[in-house]
Amino acid sequence: MVRAVAYDCDVLVIGGGIVGLSTAYAITRAAPGTRVTVLEKEPGPARHQTGRNSGVIHSGIYYRPGSLKARYAVRGAAEMIKFCAEYGIPHEVTGKLIVATERDELPRLHALVQRGRENGIPVRELGPAQISEYEPEVRGLAAIQVGTTGICDYGSVAARLADASGADVRYGAEVVRIDRRAELGVAVRTADGSVVRGKVLVNCAGLQCDRVAMLAGDDPGMRIVPFRGEYFDLVRPELVRGLVYPVPDPAFPFLGVHLTRGIGGGVHVGPNAVPALAREGYGWGVVRPLEVAGTLGWPGAWRMAGRHWRYGAGEFRRSLSKGAFTAAVRRLLPAVTPDDLVPAAAGVRAQAVLRDGSLVDDFLIREGVRAVHVLNAPSPAATASLPIGREVARRVLALL
To answer: Which of 76, 106, 203, 395 has the most CB within a 10 Å radius?
Structure first.
């Protein structure tokens, strides 16, 4: 006989970033009356990946046609703009340029044009003179203009999702133990000794998602390897009118050092991508030996390093040398000098790495007994958060 349990909620979400809060919002929209509790270890929402990115609403042009990233980013960009307009959140549809500065980038640029069209994204091809019409200070051999790209304040989006969901959002609630039983549900203990009981667990813990999966008793089959992205602010923001990106290397999920004019009018420059020495290591001085050991103990981390060490060496150089970082920026914006760049807050990307060393290049959502785990949701997850939330909600409600 299954004994009666006094549930505190129907769905228990771990993680108060934009994906966790979008999931709570989607559940209560799809099934009014469903009781949702969100546990977030920080004192407020969006303190990590959500609140530490460049604020871009991505068009979806980069992603493999048919992938979750492509489908959800294209759909999510339109929905994010509508959400921001509905709730009065600062946003703007700016468009962006993707600029080829070397001849060997031209085939990749053309491939992006084709990919954009396959993903249903309108793009315009530009020559050097046309680049100058959009961005007088930017130099390149060719470019594409993507009109559906925008910018917004994702921290404000996350806070609004928390309010609009009607969920019980508890901040300062770090999860330290999970007890899951197939016939009963889940009980979660937080650092202050509180216990919260629910019928289904949703893991949207971002940088900690693999650990949460293992606390629940599921093998995620991957590990998070944290990559720090370091940014600078441009002292002369008048050099850039909008958003300017390099042509990305298709072998990596990183978009390269780009220029982003934000909602406040300032211009963000970056990021690079270097391994962080802690899951929340926003500077070289933040070192957590146990977390470093956990990364080094994962075979995939060594295989990834062996495969991509040349790329990584370049990223390290740009991290340690402002001159090298400036040189990367000057490929797009020749007028920039080291004095034009002042350090800004860094971010950390939660990148899932498989045992064979592969970087997971799509959103990864897996189910366990009475659980749904979001195991890879870096950029463009903020853009795609509303469709991701609906997909997680669909799976959760099926379990309920």
So the answer is: 203
